Amino acid sequence: MRGGDGGGRGAGRGRGSGPSPGALRAAATAATALGLALILGVAAGTVSHGRHDNATHVARMAAALWELPAGGDAAVTAFLEGRATIGPDEKAGPGAHAYRAGTLEPAAWIAVAPEEPGPGWPLIPTTLALLGLSLMSAWAFARRRFPPPSRYPTLPALPATLLLAATAVASTSWAHRALGDLSAGRAVHGTRAIEVALAHGADPGHAPRVAGLPWATTEGLASPDELWTLPREVAEAVAAAPPSAPAYTVTVGGATYHVARTAFPTPTSPAPPIPQDPTATEPDAANPANHLHLVLLGYEDTRSPAIPLAAAAAAPALATILLLFLLPLSARPRALRRTLTAWGFLSPAAALLLLFTFGPLLFSLWISLHEWHLVDPVHPFTGLANYGALLLDGEWWSAIRNTAVFTLHVPFAMAVALGLALLTRRSRRAVRWARLALFLPGITSVVAIAVVWKWLLDDGYGLVNRALEGVGLGSVAWLTSPDTALVTLMAISVWMVVGYQMVVFQAGLAAIPRDWYDAARVDGAGPLQRFRHITLPGLRHTLFFVLVTSVIGSFQVFGLVYVMTEGGPLGSTDVAVYHIYREAWEFLRVGNAAAMSWVLFAVVFVATWLHFRLLERRWAHA
Amino acid sequence: MPDPGSRAAAGAPARHPASRTHLAAPPFRRPATPASRPTLLLATTLFTTTCTPSPPATTLRVALWAGGHELEIEQQVADRYEALHPGVRVLLESAPNGYEERLLTSIAAGHPPDVYLLDSPDIPTFVDRGLATDLAPYQEALGFAADSVFPQVLDAFRRGDAIFALPKDFTPMVIYANRAVLEAAGVETPSLAGWTWDEFRAAAEAVTRDTDGDGRPDVFGFDFPRNLYQWVPFVWSAGGDILAPGGDAATGYMDGPAALEAYAFLTGLAEDGFTPGAQFVQQGDPAREARFASGGQALLLSGHWTLRVFRDLVADGTLDLAILPIPHHPILDRATSVIYASGWAVPPNAAHLRRAIDLAGFLASREAQRIRVRSGLAIASRMDVAADIAAADETGVERAFIALAGGARMTWGAHVRDFSRIEALAVEIMDRRLLNGEALAGSAGDVARRVDEELGR
Fold it and tell me: For chain B, how many structural domains are there in total?
């Protein structure tokens, strides 16, 4: 190991004042162990939370039964037997308030003991984790005794990462099974609550509500969403399910829906009318038209611990890699201290970057692989389908084309800005005022600029058209014609950016030694020759910087379009970022919008790379 | 994007930048002088050691899009609720711009408001996804009588027996008429009984004229209704529709004969110069109300929210205003306008569910609506409150609004999920005619096909 266990002069001098390789290995093992504990804890906690949540839902069903006119304690007891505690005050544990009809003040508190916990702890993942950790510890011990030479100090992180990943996968699988059981139990509880409600004289039209579950459907109804709205695909899947099973699951769009069935007097069945006598509520169970299906989206989808578990596995894996990365430095305590100090200073910024830049970036990538509606409880994984759909989306490519055309204003703006910089490089009072006037648009709110220009360019009452008419020219449909709208926005954008670019160019001009111009003059060079052979080469870094940043900025244009044209007329100013905004916030297709964002990123990346590839060598290193 | 017309039914004018509420400057605080510091320290010590903490208040968060004066009125409603319920604090979280974004984000983040204002085009988005509590079981507790509100308004929030929001207010789309402009052109102001497209066009033509001799009209008959929320009543008033009765298809409806006639009628007004140039943006022409009030336009299509802009002008006699129905196709005898409404909804996972339901009930109550009508933005959803306001209105404008609401239909957006995409596509039909000269049948057929694709997603 380079500079490692063998040590050297530096290592010998510093020995004892820094962490030893053994300590670092132990820390890496401890990080792995902590990560494993975290994974198991997250899985167990998720299931525990689900169990508590399930008990709360059951308590709400019990409260709804209590609130029935003929309900009360008897209905709750019939529903839950000994699991419910009814009292006037809120007690510890999951529960729900019950109310008397016509009041909003709670009358009773129904606490429900969670069902027998079953596998409360992920035993198989725990066994896997312990076994893997033992092997790792033994291996680490063996390495300390017989250190093998290695050029890859972080290689031992591989088994640790694999162990963490395997434990996370096993824990996710265990949690999904446990949460699925809870969901199935909740559906069955729902049907039981309905049966008790019917037995206590509830109106069949309202009885399903005591279950408090999202959806209920009966096969006897003409439309499957007569009772409550049920997604069409789910209703079709429920209808296609085998009629014999009292409780079953259907999978739609990658999500698991739990269904429980019970006999039920439906409005369209030949069953008797609303019974006055509770004992008369005996629907014909053999008649499929009398089957009520309670449908709910499973906990395994709504409370899936997959992402937290992935994070719980990734964080210690990274910590392990980092510790092993530091291993070679352990023989050089001063270098190690310097590295740790540097990381100490960098860590706040790095944490912010991870949390607020790389985290959202990765999350948006994750979203782009799903059919993701902001408030849908389930987001089916669709792989690259969103990207595939983009290939055929003419509106999107039209937006990309518009964006590319819009970007053509950049070289023109740069030429204007450079000209202005040359004209205003002297420091006279008038020139200073001119510079200030030119710079003002660059520091003014885009929205304010857009609103003012919109009024100025209005077809009917705009000052610009009035002025044109005043000098005998016709008015122009600046923003209301597909032929001119984008060009108008480009012109306004030039006006907005030239001030800033001019200032940057002036800074670049100031850095060119005056001697060069004097020497050129002595040699007989004219203004054009001086510009071509001194100014332009002297500004090469500045030109490259302005070009790259302006192109990136123009690919992200949004404010002007949002305020002035809304992408119109007929999509002629629909640029990429505005298109993404509408897709996400107007049409609520966040998955599509995320995919568009990544495609736009790729386009900008390629454009920037091309700049570096084609221009940097010619300009920056000329 | 939610239908701006309906959003405006209770707040669009307040979303205008000029009418935004500005935060008051913080009160001036005199810095503590050295001599006063011991006193301050003593007072602070005494305060912290002798005062017993008051019981924590329950805070109910209400999401809405009110701004400016409307928000002040809503604050009065909230203050009244707090006075009636000691220990409860009502926090109004208003977002005049980006309301839906903020609301959806708060729900997606698991931190929804306790009560939120539900716009009619957003009803399927929220109700179909289980984001609104069924309030029907609490009607008795809330003192809410279904027969006390306009039935067509309540129906928008109903699914079967369930009620997913308690109606706040609503507005039909009507035609505002500037009587002085019409009379100057020799046009007799039509009555509430109705008028045909031919009469409407004749009035627009008679009014449109060049007053300063510069070769361009200065007074217009109408302004082009580009957005679907504006022109859909013209299709209905021709006996057609934009979607099939189940809301699951557009082909045969959006490009049907009646719809094509409506498009031809409206684009004809623009092509013949009876309207100022179209803006081709959803936010519309920002000068249209000023033009109407100043006599530059005779007829204006809008909802009740615009009435507030004109109220003072009507009161001082500057503007002679008449409220008229949407014109109808000559073969029919009456028009069908569109209604936009809003209601108070409670998310199922509200932090204080029962209290939130109670607050929603109060916000929709007679008392709250009587306070709210002071804003003058929309018609109260309770018939008795609306009738009281109409009776007290000497101009007759409120009575006209209520009369015109009678034959109106709720927007399709109240029943069709993610309707905003259909609205975005539908504007192309007439845009393509006016900008590219395309045949209406072609553009309507193409848009109808794309709407079908959206409905089938």
Answer: 2
Q: Do A160 and A47 reside in the same domain of the chain?
A: yes
Q: Which of A56, A65, A68, A104 to probe by mutation at the B interface, max B CB count within 10 Å?
A: A104
User: Which of A104, A110, A115, A107 is closest to A52 using CA atoms?
Assistant: A115
Q: Are residues A100 and A207 in the same domain?
A: yes
Is B372 found in the same domain as B319?
no
Same structural domain for residues A326 and A465? no
B219 has which bridge partners?
B209
Of A102, A205, A482, the CB nearest to B141: A102
Report if residue A268 sits inside a domain.
Answer: no
- Are A9 and A95 in the same domain? yes
* Token couple for A99: 């109310």
CA-to-CA distance for A245 and A259, rounded, in angstroms? 10
Residue A40, H or E segment? helix A21-67
In this complex, the residue of A460, A565, A587 whose CB is nearest that of residue B277 is: A460
Number of domains composing chain A = 2
Range of the domain at A42: 1-214+303-331
User: Is the pLDDT confidence value at B130 over 80?
Assistant: no
A281 confidence band (pLDDT: 50, 70, 90) = very low
pLDDT one-digit tens code per residue, B427-436: 999 999 999 9
- Calculate helix-pair angle for B353-363, B68-84, nearest 10 degrees: 120
Of the residues A475, A586, A589, A590, the best mutation for testing chain B's interface (the one with the most B CB atoms within 10 Å of its CB) is: A586
Cβ contact (<8 Å) for A569 and B108? no
Prediction pTM value: 0.79
CATH code of the domain covering residue B332: 3.40.190.10
User: Which is more confidently placed, A354 or A141?
Assistant: A354
Per DSSP bridges, beta strands B379-380 and B115-119 are unpaired
Under an 8 A CB cutoff, do A570 and B287 touch? Answer: no
User: Beta B166-172 vs B379-380: how paired, if at all?
Assistant: antiparallel
CB contact under 8 A, B276 and A206: no
Of residues B281, B418, B428, nearest to A566 (C-beta)? B281
Tell me, yes or no, if A392 comes closer than 8 A to chain B by beta carbon: no
Kindly give the pairing relationship between strand B58-64 and strand A247-252: unpaired
Range of the domain at B211: 174-336+427-455
- Chain segment A261-277, per-residue pLDDT in tens: 787 765 444 333 333 44
A47 and A172 together in one domain = yes
A197 and A80 within one domain:
yes
How high is the pLDDT of residue B302? 94
Task: Say if residue B298's pLDDT is above 90.
Answer: yes
B48 is a domain residue: no
pLDDT, tens digit (0-9, with 9 covering 90-100), for B131-176: 888 888 788 888 899 999 999 999 999 887 789 999 999 999 999 9
A476 with A400, same domain: the answer is yes
CATH number of the domain encompassing residue A513: 1.10.3720.10
Query: For B264-287, how does the pLDDT look when each residue is reduced to its tens digit (9 = 90+)?
Result: 999 999 999 999 887 787 777 888
- Chain A nearest C-alpha distance from B215 (Å): 11
**Interchain pair A568, B355: CB under 8 A:** no
Residue of A488, A562, A570, A589 to mutate, testing the B interface (most B Cβ within 10 Å of its Cβ): A570
Chain B interface includes A585 (CB < 8 A): yes
Name the residue type at position A492.
I
Digit-coded pLDDT (tens) for B320-361: 999 999 999 999 989 999 999 999 999 887 888 888 999 999
CA gap A175, A124 in Å, rounded: 11
**From CA A424, how far away is CA A421, in angstroms rounded?**
5
Looking at the complex, report in whole angstroms how far the Cα of residue B130 sits from the nearest Cα belonging to chain A: 7
Query: Is A284 contained in some domain?
Result: no
In this prediction, residue A137 carries a pLDDT of: 79
Dist CA B47 CA A437 (whole Å): 56
All residues of chain A having their beta carbon less than 8 Å from the beta carbon of residue B17 are 451
- Tell me how close the Cα of B425 comes to any Cα of chain A, in angstroms: 10
For residue B179, being part of any structural domain is answered with yes
Q: Provide the token pair at A475.
A: 């008015």
CB contacts of A104 in chain B (<8 Å) are 138, 141-142, 354-355, 357-358
Structure confidence by residue, pLDDT tens digits, B358-373: 999 999 999 999 998 8
Determine the 3-state secondary structure of A378 from DSSP: coil
Asked if residue B403 and residue B346 are part of one domain, the reply reads yes
